[in-house]
Amino acid sequence: VQLQACGGGLVQAGGSLRLSCAASERISSTAGMGWFRQAPGKEREFVVSISRSGLSQYYADSVKGRFTISRDNAKNTVNLQMNNLKPEDTAVYYCAVAKSRFTTAQVMKDMTDPDQYRLAYWGQGTQVTVSS
Questions:
Q1: How far is residue 82 from each of residues 44, 49, 90, 102, measured CA to CA in Å?
Q2: Across residues 86-98, what is the average pLDDT?
Q3: DSSP collapsed to 3 states, the chain
Q4: What is the mean pLDDT of the chain?
Q5: Of 7, 64, 67, 111, which is the most exposed, with the fewest CB atoms less than 10 Å away?
Q6: What is the sign of the dihedral through the CA atoms of 90, 58, 19 and 126?
Q7: Among 107, 76, 90, which residue's Cα sits nearest to residue 4?
Q8: Which conformational region is residue 96 in: left (phi greater than 0), alpha (psi within -120 to 50 degrees), or beta?
Q9: What is the pLDDT of residues 15-65, one digit of tens each?
Q10: Is residue 9 pLDDT above 70, yes or no?
């Protein structure tokens, strides 16, 4: 599965961006999908994940109430609407799609090291820069 992310850019604090990630194959059979981010000099961190049905969503505390994830299994896409952006949201954002149905949205929420990252397919990353 190849993932192509787009939608990043430069925005002022308080602004909005919408990221999209398109998968090269059907995603309806997968479990979790999500977004992670990595700021310069920092480790990759979890941002948000969504279950196969879309009914279960998990958000990092730092983005709750500002970011919203959605998925469209018919279009093989997962999206991230980011509102009220802050300078600390500046990072490269990566979309992730579970390799198996056992990697649920909740499992993705707890992915914190490279050994766990092998449980998902990863996009190439898209830069989000928020100016103050």
A1: 18, 14, 12, 28
A2: 97
A3: CCEEEECCEEEECCCCEEEEEEECCCCCCCCCEEEEEECCCCCCEEEEEECCCCCCEEECHHHCCCEEEEEECCCCEEEEEECCCCHHHCEEEEEEEECCCCCCHHHHHCCCCHHHHCCEEECCCEEEEEEC
A4: 94
A5: 64
A6: positive
A7: 76
A8: beta
A9: 999 999 999 988 767 789 999 999 999 999 999 999 999 999 999 999 999
A10: yes
**Mean pLDDT within 104-108:** 94
Listed residue (74, 79, 77, 4) closest to 35, CA to CA: 79
Q: What percent of the chain has pLDDT over 90?
A: 86
Which two structure tokens, joined as six digits, stand for 57? 């969503």
What is the predicted pLDDT for the residue at 101? 87
Distance CA 51, CA 61 (A): 18
Whole-number Å distance between alpha carbons of 103 and 92 = 23
Tokens of 75: 């279009």
